[in-house]
Amino acid sequence: MKEMGEASYIHGIKIYRDRSRRMLRLTQSSYIEKIVKIQDEHSKRGLLPMRHGIKLSKKQSPKTDEEHKRMSNIPYASAVGSIQFAVQCTRPDVAYAFSVTNRYQACAWEAHWSAVKAFLSTEND
């Protein structure tokens, strides 16, 4: 083993250390910035990881072959999967919003994708 000094990054997590103030901060902002590129440029910025009153269900799933085909071009599962790592490591406060969007990976449609985009825009703030 070789001594390489203090760690500043580990598994995509940036480590900020202030020994004089006895503080340690972990952030995944660069990771979040990478996955935010998935969302549309015209998405509205949100303050909460999940908008109040939003109701997602399987009834909102694509019904026709054309809708299924259109949804296959949207990286819903990839976006939700990418968010999972950030939630598990540094953002347990948004786990509920993640779990709600995660339920619809097999049957996501526009309402579900809008919720994920809102979540991503919140995480990038």
What keyword list fits this structure?
Retrovirus-related Pol polyprotein from transposon TNT 1-94, 125 residues, 5 helices, alpha+beta, 3-stranded antiparallel β-sheet, 3 strands
Architecture overview:
With 125 residues, the protein is α+β, with helices and mostly antiparallel strands. The protein has one domain. The chain has helices spanning 29-36, 65-72, 76-89, 95-102, 110-123, and strands spanning 9-10, 13-18, 23-27. Strands 1-2-3 form a 3-stranded antiparallel sheet.
* Strand-residue proportion: 5-15%
Q: What's the alpha carbon Rg, rounded to whole Å?
A: 17 Å
Give the number of DSSP strands. 3
Strand order of the largest sheet: 1-2-3
**Integer average pLDDT:** 76
Question: Helix proportion of residues, in percent?
Answer: 40-55%
Outline of this structure?
This protein has five helices and three strands; from the N terminus they run βββααααα. It has 125 residues and is an alpha+beta fold. It has one domain.
Write the layout of secondary structure elements.
Elements lengths: L8 E2 L2 E6 L4 E5 L1 H8 L28 H8 L3 H14 L5 H8 L7 H14 L2
Antiparallel strand pairs: 1-2, 2-3
Helix pairs in contact: 1-3, 1-5, 3-4, 3-5
